[in-house]
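User: Could you go from structure to sequence for me? I need the amino acid at each position, not a summary. Structure tokens:
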């Protein structure tokens, strides 16, 4: 597993294409289903996929309930373990949401927390973690 993170519009997807060769077989987290994530070579907009998990519109057996932080941690660990088992070669591209202004809406704050916890679990299992700034990849792990 490979995790590529960074701010919005920092060139993460282009970096992933250049270094992972995921031009084909890449799913878009804004629209793909849970089986797409289990079988694709890569996923971009992963943070949006997590948002859809919090809204239960994936038709998935995974639903992230963000209203209970203890449960959220357990669900993040369970989802990450499932994804690593189903698709250990996946490249995941996600925005970092923990910087900047804290959202006013509670649902947005909890979604941001869910993305952070899931990405933390994924980073622990990932073979490589890269942060992209201005199109330049900085290897963290």
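Assistant: Here is the amino acid at each position, in order:
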């Amino acid at each position: 597993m490979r995790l590529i993170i960074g701010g919005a519009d920092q060139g993460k997807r282009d970096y992933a294409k250049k270094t992972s060769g995921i031009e084909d077989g890449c799913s878009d987290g804004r629209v793909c289903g849970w089986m797409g994530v289990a079988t694709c070579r890569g996923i971009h907009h992963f943070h949006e996929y997590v948002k859809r998990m919090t809204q239960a519109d994936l038709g998935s057996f995974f639903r992230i309930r963000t209203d209970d932080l203890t449960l959220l941690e357990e669900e993040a660990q369970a989802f990450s373990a499932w994804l690593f088992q189903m698709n250990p070669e996946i490249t995941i591209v996600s925005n970092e949401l923990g910087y900047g202004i804290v959202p006013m809406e509670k649902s947005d704050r909890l979604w941001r927390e869910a993305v952070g916890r899931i990405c933390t679990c994924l980073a622990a299992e990932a073979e490589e973690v890269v942060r992209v700034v201005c199109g330049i990849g900085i290897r963290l792990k």
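One structural detail worth keeping in mind: The beta strands are 2-6, 26-28, 42-44, 91-95, 128-133, 136-139.
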